[in-house]
UniProtKB/TrEMBL annotation:
This is DUF721 domain-containing protein. It comes from the Bacteria. InterPro entries: DciA-like. It comes from Chitinophaga eiseniae.
Length: 112
């Protein structure tokens, strides 16, 4: 039986503390997403995934669609009383969605 010795390649660095001027992968990804054209779409998906938590089960059940286009949250429902309730609650919806996102993304709500 032979013993294999593994030599450290000069191209492989150990993962020690970050050096001055370096960025963590998480920070680099956050920066990329903030500058990317994907951010609005990812924000829309986050709103859709959290819609029930934000607005409750009943409203979520009767909401057919949620879109985010240029800081406008477009909510689609075919239930007339819900349309009316959402229309009266636009400021509250903006506040709740922005709180969930942790930033002021939604400036306007449209009900269709």
């Amino acid at each position: 039986m032979s013993v294999v010795q593994i030599k450290k390649s000069p191209n492989i660095r150990s993962f020690g503390p970050m050096r001055h001027g370096t960025t963590s992968i998480g920070d680099a990804l956050r920066e990329f997403m903030n500058k990317s054209r994907l951010k609005p779409r990812l924000t829309e998906v986050r709103i859709q995934e959290n819609w029930e938590k934000i607005m409750g089960k009943t409203i979520a059940r009767y909401t057919q669609g949620i879109q985010l286009i240029e800081h406008k949250l477009i909510i689609t429902t075919s239930v007339a009383p819900l349309k009316q309730e959402l229309t009266y609650s636009k400021d509250k919806i903006i506040k709740l969605v922005n709180e969930m996102l942790g930033e002021n993304v939604v400036k306007e709500v449209m009900i269709h």
